[in-house]
From TrEMBL:
Entry-linked NCBIfam families: YbgC/FadM family acyl-CoA thioesterase
Stored Pfam families: 4HBT_2 (PF13279)
Family: Belongs to the 4-hydroxybenzoyl-CoA thioesterase family.
Protein name, UniProt field: Thioesterase superfamily protein
Molecular function in Gene Ontology: fatty acyl-CoA hydrolase activity
Listed CDD domains: 4HBT
Entries under PANTHER family matching the protein: 4-HYDROXYBENZOYL-COA THIOESTERASE FAMILY MEMBER, ACYL-COA THIOESTER HYDROLASE YBGC
């Protein structure tokens, strides 16, 4: 997913605020499902929730930059998936994170539905 950096994404120095990298990754995860006509979060209390994030800020983005978020599947279990998401400015990796997502129904972990598993499988590793 491509993301352009706008003024609202930056601090007073024109550098992307650190929390926005997490937002960009969240948007990219949702976009994977939207592109296939699937709502990633069904009813109000159904969907993936973040269990753990390990982030590494290795560079920075500035106003006007065009970034690309890449998402890869590292591990899939019955009710959770582990993804690696990286953000690049051109060929330079400026951010990476591993995120553990758990599929929940009414706040309890549940087996990931087959329709969602097919989308997840397309991420490869």
């Amino acid at each position: 997913m491509k993301i352009r950096i706008y003024y609202e994404d930056t601090d007073a120095g024109g550098i992307v605020y650190h929390a926005n990298y997490l937002k960009y990754c969240e948007r990219a995860r949702s976009e994977i499902f939207f592109q296939r006509g699937i709502m990633p979060y069904g009813e109000e209390e159904i969907g993936f929730v973040v269990r753990r994030v390990e982030a590494d800020f290795v560079g920075m983005a500035k106003l006007g930059d065009l970034l690309e978020v890449r998402t890869d599947l590292l591990e899939e279990r019955h009710s959770s998936i582990l993804l690696e998401q990286q953000i690049f400015r051109g060929e330079e990796r400026i951010f990476s994170m591993k995120v553990l997502l758990v599929y929940v129904v009414m706040g309890r972990p549940r087996r990931i539905p087959e329709q969602l598993k097919e989308v997840i499988a397309s991420l490869g590793s």
